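Table S2 (text version). Query chain:
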Amino acid sequence: MGAQYENLRAFSEERGLSLSPHGHSVAREHEWYQVFMFAVEEHAEIFRAAFGGERMHPSERGKGARWAQWKKATNERKSKRQH
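Corresponding structure-token output:
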């Protein structure tokens, strides 16, 4: 991410957002995505509104040898069943 990473960090610090210093990448359909984690959901929405992106629930992350796989549909199915 390089210089863009520093811009994302500065944006979060200036606004007091709860951006975690930890993050990871996940793959979905042969594309890689950078995951940013927040302690407060509203902070994640502010960040997403400014930079784009999609929400990812921790349950959508792969397990074991496939830990970097994004199982996006997993969370969507859970949301539909709950309503």
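Notes on Table S2: The first strand starts at residue 19 and ends at 28. Strands lie at 19-28, 31-38.
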